[in-house]
Design a protein that fits this description.
Keywords: GTP-binding, Nucleotide-binding, Nucleotidyltransferase, Transferase
Radius of gyration: 24 Å
Strand content: 25-35%
CATH class of the largest domain: Alpha Beta
EC number: 2.7.7.13
Oligomer: single chain
CATH topology of the largest domain: Spore Coat Polysaccharide Biosynthesis Protein SpsA, Chain A
Pfam family, one: MannoseP_isomer
Mean pLDDT: 93
GO biological process, one term: polysaccharide biosynthetic process
Shape: globular
Structural class: alpha+beta
Family: Belongs to the mannose-6-phosphate isomerase type 2 family.
Distance between the termini: 35 Å
Length: 455
């Protein structure tokens, strides 16, 4: 069985922890593990390999985190933009043998009852071997209005239902045969594609063309225009709600999609006052609060039932129970800043950079390059740069020259000059970069050569 892991989505309801370039599935929220890593660990016990379907910008995050887990035998399909789950799953299945059984899972779900999970996935595999499209229905623990529901009779699906109002969700909870739609599936790749071709032929044909035109080396990279040409739709609308081959496995697996701060609060360890445990947190007479922040001391006095999230460049304060509105805050932030998109520390294929100071005329960064990593050969039209090596060994390309630099040595990069930074040593390279210019945006980069195929 092959685990297709869907890594799309920006997790905007967990902003400012989750951002476009570091979405919630890759943030290490649980015992220094990300939800993505927990997904891989859980499913690698029952699957032979991983097939990662990811946004092209997030590929290196998945690759690095798999490396941390020492997981090999990984396959990747990179999407230049998201077109929802039906095209993502179709492209992955088209790259496999039609008889391959796949377990399709999101990368950002938490499942704590792994022994029960092992049982239900085995049951799903047996149903899939018989030519069924299997979905997992989560036994509801409360009247949830944020999920779609599956009405079932044993393994038979009677109907799919849209997200209900509270009254309807309460009736579903009491009925006993309604389940939350988990977004997890199991089937033969060929059976899914046959049903997709039958019920959503436009998605099938456009996906087939996109894969035929894809650049395939050690990974599959879909062309932007081909991806854009695929109709956008979910697997539920495109196939599952139309097919006669659908089965459901009722699952009581202690599941959460960690889709809001209220959901995250329920999953994090807490102290005797019901506050989430945080080494930077001190309080007086404060109870039942979610406190998240790793950079500054957070102190509270006489507060209860709040969500406080501090990421250095953004502070969120919300009442518990209202955290679904965070998505609306992101829309307000999006208009006048990059706070929805990137953290102060940004992850790149070659390492990380952290913004230490940002002013209209200058910006200071701490740049860390992994051993063997190097930035693109690039130039800037609106800024000059000054690099000072803090630790490690650097090789700087400046025009036609290659210049070695060691700790406490520096170099000036004139505006418009081709340059590149490379870590030629066996230890991380750390430099301080000072940018000076009239425009210091991250889009003032012209890449001439790039090891990571970025434009």
């Amino acid at each position: 069985m092959i685990n297709i892991i869907l890594c799309g989505g920006n997790g905007t309801r967990l902003w400012p922890i989750s951002r476009t370039l570091m979405p919630k599935q890759f943030v290490k929220l649980f015992d220094d593990k990300s939800l993505f890593q927990l997904t891989v660990q859980r499913n690698s016990k029952i699957c032979d390999s991983q097939f990662i379907v990811s946004n092209a910008q997030q590929y290196f995050l998945a690759s690095d985190q798999l490396q941390e887990l020492k997981k090999s035998n990984n396959k990747y399909l990179l999407e230049p933009l998201g077109r929802n789950t039906a095209p993502a799953i179709a492209l992955a299945c088209m790259a496999l043998d039609s008889e391959d059984i796949v377990l399709v899972t999101p990368s950002d779900h938490l499942i704590k009852n792994e022994s029960e999970y092992d049982k239900v996935t085995k049951e799903a595999k047996i149903l899939a071997q018989s030519g069924n499209l299997v979905t997992f229905g989560i036994k509801p623990s409360f009247a949830q209005t944020g999920f779609g529901y599956i009405e079932a009779n044993g393994n038979d699906v009677k109907a799919f239902h849209e997200k209900p109002d509270f009254s309807t969700a309460s009736k579903y909870l009491g009925a006993g045969n309604y389940y939350w739609n988990s977004g997890m599936f199991c089937f033969k790749a060929g059976v899914f594609l046959d049903e997709l071709k039958k019920h959503s032929p436009q998605i099938y044909e456009a996906s087939k063309r996109a894969l035929q035109n894809a650049k395939i080396q050690n990974l599959i990279r879909i062309d932007y225009d081909d991806m854009l040409a695929i109709p956008e739709d979910s697997i539920d609308y495109a196939v599952m709600e139309k097919s006669s081959k659908v089965k459901v496995v009722p699952s009581d697996i202690d599941w959460s999609d960690v889709g809001s701060f209220d959901a995250l609060y329920e999953e994090l360890p807490k102290d005797e006052n019901g506050n989430t445990i945080n080494k930077n947190y001190v309080q007086i007479d404060s109870k039942n609060n979610l406190i998240y922040g790793n950079e500054r001391k957070i102190a509270t006095v006489d507060i209860e039932d709040l969500i406080i999230v501090d990421t250095g460049d953004a502070l969120l304060i919300s009442k518990k129970g209202a955290s679904q509105k965070v998505k609306e805050i992101v829309q307000k932030v999006r208009g006048d800043s990059e706070l929805h998109n990137i953290h102060l520390t940004a992850h790149r294929p070659w390492g990380t950079y952290t913004i230490l100071e940002d002013n209209p005329k200058y910006k200071i960064k701490r740049i860390e390059v992994k051993p063997g990593g190097r930035l693109s050969l690039q130039k800037h039209f609106h800024r000059s740069e000054h690099w000072t090596v803090v630790s490690g060994t650097a090789v700087v390309t400046l025009g036609e020259r290659e210049i070695p630099l060691r700790a406490n040595e520096s170099i000036y990069i004139p505006m418009g000059e081709l340059h590149r930074l490379e870590n030629a040593g066996k230890l991380p390279l750390v430099i301080i970069e000072t940018q000076i210019g009239d425009y210091l945006g991250e889009d003032d980069i012209v890449r001439v050569k790039d090891d990571y195929k970025r434009s």
